[in-house]
Design brief:
85 residues, 4 strands, 4-stranded mixed sheet, alpha+beta, globular, Glutaredoxin
């Protein structure tokens, strides 16, 4: 699974990346985490507020730092979507 954290590298971006890693590790997910700070790449995702979370190309959160439980739900939903495709 490809997970991207979009943002300029602010403390909220770092907190989001850490929460994503913790949630993914807790559920035993194999993933690739990429932190993207290039503003053009961020806007190409349609994101206007950072930090943002992108899971397999889909923006799942923007302008906030979801808690670990919310991230776990997002990740498990993405897994279920993959399996049903």
């Amino acid at each position: 699974m490809k997970i991207e954290v979009l943002g300029p590298g602010c403390p909220k971006c770092s907190a989001l990346a850490a929460s994503v890693q913790a949630a993914a590790d807790r559920i035993g997910l194999q993933y690739e985490l990429e932190k993207i700070s290039d503003i053009m790449e961020i806007t190409n995702h349609g994101v206007m507020a950072t930090p943002a979370l992108v899971i397999d190309g889909k923006v799942t959160a923007s302008g906030k730092v979801p808690n670990e439980a919310e991230i776990t739900t997002m990740l498990t939903s993405a897994i279920a979507s993959r399996e049903s495709a």
